[in-house]
Amino acid sequence: MVSTSLPGGTWTLGDLPVTRFGYGAMQLAGPWVMGPPADHGGALAVLRAAVELGITHIDTSEAYGPHVTNQLIREALHPYPDSLHIVTKVGANRDQQGGWPPARDPESLRRSVHENLETLGLEVLDLVNLRLGDAAGPQPGSVAEAFETLVGLQQQGLIRHLGVSNATPEQVAEAQAIAPIVCVQNMYNLAHRQDDELIDALAEQRIAYVPFFPLGGFSPLQSSVLSTVAARLEAAPMSVALAWLLRRSPNILLIPGTSSTTHLRENIAGAALPLSDDDLAELDKIGR
Asked: Are 143 and 169 in contact (CB under 8 A)?
């Protein structure tokens, strides 16, 4: 049974019911997503609090740390509740300088899937996103070889569902021509609206859209309009930004990250903030 007490209710990823308000584990690793957390016990506490609060969608990657967030998730939550679904991504590694070099050749993808299975303590991964592009964003190019590799692993029973991340609309379409996808995970927020048409098209197909950096990423959202609306509502600007995302489209799933249980609760409360039609109309102008 999936909790509906969280803001936004629920969505179904393929056949997996999840809360639309999820949790992104990236910030549990050390600075710049490298190395262990400064507060190991605190990181475990955040993960346990997320599940206790009813969150059933946790996003992670073997590249975070690397290995760190997956190991923390296993330590904190294994054996996992039946209602909890862990989503991971493959297609990039970490180098010694903290970069994200692509790793989308078949051998690298197979190795990454098996590493995720091992570190998470799973026999099957619920959902694997193929990370495309680079740190600058989506880049054009065929996804066929990489995506077909993941389809092969799915056919072996190692992956339940597939998605794509950091993808262009053309790459989404190419992947869909090869096999069904249940989500697209791209950068999107109030100030970065490049995927508006894609979100609407996916909603018609009942495919989830999961915005990463929903609050701007390493540089928080800055907007005078957002600040004005937030002041009028006596709310934090980031709360307004999260609430707007949930109202933007029913297929948007949130995975804001934090290493603080207090901040986690604040994010949940913020996403539940009621917005009037006038608020929405004003906010909708920001990234247009």
From this structure: no
User: Is 70 exceeded by the pLDDT of residue 140?
Assistant: yes
80 given a catalytic annotation: no
- Residue 184's closest CA among 240, 143, 243, 215? 143
Is 90 in a helix, a strand, or coil? Answer: strand
- Residue 98 has phi, psi (to 5 degrees) of 85, 10
Name which residue leads in pLDDT, 139 or 1: 139
Decide: 102 and 89 in contact? Cβ < 8 Å. Answer: no
pLDDT at residue 268, rounded to an integer: 98
**Residue 96 has what pLDDT?**
85
From the candidates 23, 64, 188, 209, give the one annotated as an active-site residue: 64
Tally of CB atoms within 10 A around 4: 12
Residue 2 has pLDDT above 50, yes or no: no
Contacts of 55 (CB under 8 A, 6+ apart): 6, 19, 21, 22, 23
Q: Decide if 46 contacts 52 (C-beta within 8 A).
A: no
Cβ contacts of residue 13 below 8 Å, gap of 6+? 57, 85, 87, 126, 127, 161, 182, 183, 208
